[in-house]
Structure formats: C-alpha cells, structure tokens
Amino acid sequence: VVYLDYNATSPLRPEALEVMLDTLRSVGNASSIHTAGRDAAARVDLARQQVAHLLACAPGELIFTSGATEANNLALHAGYSVGETLATTAVEHPAIREAARAITTDGRGSLVELPVDRDGVVNLTPLEVAIRQGKVSLVSAMLANNETGVLTNMDPIIGLAREAGALVHTDATQYVGRLPLDLNELDVDLLSLSGHKFGGPQGVGALFVRRGTSMPYRPLLIGGGQERGWRAGTLNVPGIAGLGAAAKAAQMQLHNESARVASLRYVLEDGLTSRLPDCYINGARSPRLPGVTNVTFPGLPADALLAAMPEIAASNGSACASGAPSPSHVLLAMGLSRQDADSTVRFSLGYATTEHEIKQAIEATVLAVKEVRTAMAATAE
Ligand code: PLP
To answer: Are 359 and 232 within one domain?
Structure first.
C-alpha cells in the first residue's frame, strides 16, 4: 500500500518505537519516589525538554494530554470565560468546532465562527464586530488546516485579540513537526499538538500554556494532581517518551524533510493536473503545509475513486470525520458545492514518502478516474 494519509496519522518513527519499547519494558509510575518512579519521571522530563525544544518554549509550559482532542478541549475549557464570546473559524477540526459549540450552548455564552474565502483565508470582520460589541474572552484559530493544509495568518488575529484583552489558542496539530515553529515569535497563549501527526504514537499530545497566562483554573480531569494539577491521571510514560523522541527526530530533519516533501507534493500536483485537466486543487493560492494536497475531481464521487485505487491509502476529506455521511464542512466553508466537496480526495505526504510512491499514486489516480468515469457513463445509459 502507498500510504498517503499522514494527516490522519503518520507511521511511527523508528526513534520513537525504540524508546517506547525500552520504556514499556521498564516499570515505574512517574509520581513514585523510589528509583523506578524516578526513572519514569526522568523519561518524562527528557520528553518534556524534547517537545519544548521543538516549539522553543520552556518545558514547564507543557501539559501532556491524551492527544490534540483533549488539548483542544482543555484549552477552551480553561481559557474561555463563561458568558463571554468565543471566536473560532469555520474550518476548525471537530475537536474545536464541536467543543466550542458545546461550551457556549444553552445561553452560556456566544460563539462567533469566522468565515473563510475560496482560498481558505479567514475573514476577520466578524471578529472586529464582536470585539466592538462586547467581551471576547478567547480566540481559537488553527495554524494549519487538516484537510487543505492552508496556513492561517495568525498575526492579525493575535493583534485583534490583544486589543480586546482576549486569550489566543491555536490548534497546531498539523503544523508541529512539519514546519518550524518558534513560540518566542508566535505570540499565542495556548497551543495544542498531537504526537501521531509527526511520527510519534497515537493517544498522546500536549497543551502549551504560556507562563504567566492568567486563566480560570479549570482542569478537565481532576484527581491525583499530576501535570501541576492541570491534568490528573497516571502519566502515559511510554507514549510521552515516544512523543519526545519523535519531536527530537522531527526537529533534526525538519529542514530537509519539509523541502523534500514539498517537492514531492509538487510532482503529485503537477502529474494530476497535467493528466487530468478537470481536477483542481483547493487552497492552492494560499500558503500551505508542504505535504498536503486536496484535489477535487468534479463529477466523480471520492468514495468511488478511492475504492477504484485500493493500493493507495488517501482519504475523502478529513479522515477524522470520515464515516460521517456529511460533506466536508471545510470545503463547504470555502464555497465548494456539495457535489464538488463529495468529489474531493486528500493526499497527505510525510517523512517516509518516496518519489516512486508519488508516481504510483499518479498512475493509480489517473486509472481510477477513467474507471469511475466509464462506470458512471455505463450506468447513465
Ligand atoms: N486538530 C486537528 C487539526 C487534527 O487534524 C486532529 C486529528 O486529526 C486533531 C485535532 C485531533 O487530534 P488527536 O487525534 O490527537 O485527538
């Protein structure tokens, strides 16, 4: 199988696997004071440093979680002041979109979803209006979109939020480990990440909380007081160790990997658009992540295309929401028709993708398009 679904999950990096196996063979609760416990705590400390290094933040600014879904929920829960306005964008992952809706429902506050244009660029006017009208307490905007790879220009969003005295959260799940990130330069208060998007294990992530940020103290999980009271529960030491190792490996290879992956994406897009002149790429005019392309094949249902190329692991829209019958809210927000949204395939490349695989993917897609077109013409007759 040619795996081109890195935005759904990426293969575990060998460095992460190795440290996880070693940690799984060891024993120790990171909260215990005996030697075994201290060994576990040391593994967690190392991982905290490795992740902090990748983001250019302090290790003490990180809270380990079960992934970005939890980190996003925690960020909204902790950063939002009930009764005030929460602003997000129309293209957020469900882990922000649904959580934001839940947190502001039943008159507990109001939610502003900022629309995007055809290129996926966020329209800030409703945020300006909301700020003039009342108290916006939190703004959450994703750094990179999981379906299209379109990057959000955070500077104007941060500028407006600062004027309003609001906190800023960013869901950086698809960005971390793929493009350089420096939290000295990106002035957000809260940031979510997930290990399995950059070669770490599934089920582990982190929330960055900038030192000195004043927020209501509202953890989601209450219990033994781990993670300085922000996230109770015995730490997932093997997962955290794997996350740290993946962060280190991703950081070391970031420069080369992002350039290499971007050039493979170029080969893929060039191959598809030159051989299939009908297809178009969503978000192509915007700055994007290096490894994602979101391609619409008008008139051809994505499910049928994917079924016609079983050797290629790509996805229809966002894999996180796949299985759901509704079309991609991201593509609809960008102004695609429902039919075009349903005719869209996301290919996402990553650190282990090869040029040979990209050539195979082009050939398979061209064949699948022919096959589905022929089958549809036959049923139409
Ligand atoms: N946010 C974005 C942008 C994502 O792409 C994903 C995963 O697909 C998540 C959040 C959820 O991350 P996790 O799988 O770690 O819960």
So the answer is: no
